[in-house]
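Contributing: when you submit paired examples, paste them exactly as shown. First protein:
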Amino acid sequence: TQHEVLAHVQEIPENGADIAHLGHLHVPSVFKGADLQTIFTNSKILDVAKHEWQGTWRTLEGEGNEHLASVSIQHAFAINAGTIKLFEMTVEAKQIGPGLVHLHLNTSLGKGVLVQTVTPLGPLKQKICHHLYTSPSFIAPFAKFVLHSEACHVERDIMIWNNKQYRKSPLLVAEDKLIKSFRTWYKQFYSQNSPTIDTIDKYDTDW
């Protein structure tokens, strides 16, 4: 899958440290679509199914690993108010530098790796690509559903990325503390001469 995003390149990996948003933006079933203007207000029939998430973000600092961070997620697709789980998945996402992520998927039907790349097309224009590689037991219809679901969830994020405004010193609540840690970690990927998100207003952003 491929998407274009009108946001600074840093906004996309920062999503991994924003664990709190999983329990809001990504709870409605993918069958409700990606349009945030309707998924919380349209037919309640599809609310019988929902996504459940638990996760944490951390750096992998150590000898030679300063460029790595990890997001660990427990995911379940559940119905009947969460009492029946149709399938569960554990995800270990490794952020490798500023623009590459390997999401290691472990499910009851097999294992897979979703590779995400973020390529700058301009100061506030990025291209996101996803490629899914799976074990033979990861049957094709299930793999296609997983890739479709990932695209749907990303499109929900994109609606926010395309409209959010960066704040250098945002008002963060306790649930947002990892965002501050993420920004400290991410600074290493700027060189001394790099234009940063703090100086983006110097560039022509009329795309």
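Second protein:
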Amino acid sequence: QAYLSYSNIAALTHLAAKPGWEVTSILDDVKISTHEEGDMLSLKVEMQVKIPSHLAFSLLSDFTFRQQWDKHFLTCKVLQTVNEDEKIYYVTSPPMTGHKPKDFVILVSQRQPCKPSEPYIIAVKSVTLTSVPPSSRYCRSEILCAGFQIYSDSDSSCTVCYFNQVTSGVMPYLAANLTGSSKSIEDTAVECIKFLE
């Protein structure tokens, strides 16, 4: 478990640090960038939020709040509290036209910064739990690497960066047409900012 949580944080840190992010859209307080590598498509959404970074961290690290602002989260419940920095959640998402609804078993690892210049980190990846086998009602899906980095800009504002690494199979609507879907990403980001503020 220690290895899993370490690799979860490390994978997100590695993804965030990759060179070659291309900005695809800028709208008011939201900037969307993508990074392509083979059949891996990564997404980065930067949001300017007018609350302190520690508050954004506490709101975003509790995934049971997620369905208040992210319409891709239909339900979310804690399956296991591994320790104070690690929880395993069971998430379902609404069905896309012609598809079964998806479900996920995810490990969410959180870290506070050691130095003021470092971000708060909330890393997400799928894990396998024998107690939650795939069911025929849902299409079990995998999150390879996702999460948030939260940088403090001042005492009352911060930059929240959301990352998601997807393969072409995970999010058909994302990979099929990034430009078209940037609207839904922007909408979600705007909802996230509203929720935080």
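If you have annotations for the second protein, write them as plain sentences, like these:
Residues 27 and 80 are 38 Å apart (CA to CA).
The first strand starts at residue 22 and ends at 27.
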